[in-house]
Amino acid sequence: MDWINLTISDVNLEYSLTGNFLTNKKSIGLVPNTGLAKWTIPDDNNISDNVLMRVSDPNDYEARDDSDNTFRITASYSAGKPY
Question: What is the pLDDT of residues 20-55, one digit of tens each?
């Protein structure tokens, strides 16, 4: 995910699997404000078509921005060799 880097040193990243930060918000954590972050989707079998991301100032929660549209997280499976 990427964003425009402004004047603060760190940002807080969050996501919602329901498209609603009021009832479903999960924290990715505090990351350096470089304008780019990689994150690993938790392996909790949550598949969703309504994911939103949020970037916020950890010292001023009103200074935040959410992704413009929802997106999808799908499960990934890999097959091994047959025994």
Answer: 888 888 888 999 998 888 877 766 666 788 889 999
Nearest in space to 11 (alpha carbons), one of 55, 68, 70, 49:
55
What is the pTM assigned to this prediction?
0.77
Cβ neighbour number for residue 55 with a 10 Å cutoff: 22
Q: Which residue has the tokens 């498209």?
A: 19
Which residue in the block uniquely carries the two structure tokens 């997106």?
71
DSSP code string of 22-62: TT--EEEEEEE-SSB---PPPSS---EEEEEEEEEETTEEE
Query: In 3-state terms, what secondary structure has residue 6?
Result: coil
Task: Return d(Cα 12, Cα 31) in angstroms, integer.
Answer: 6
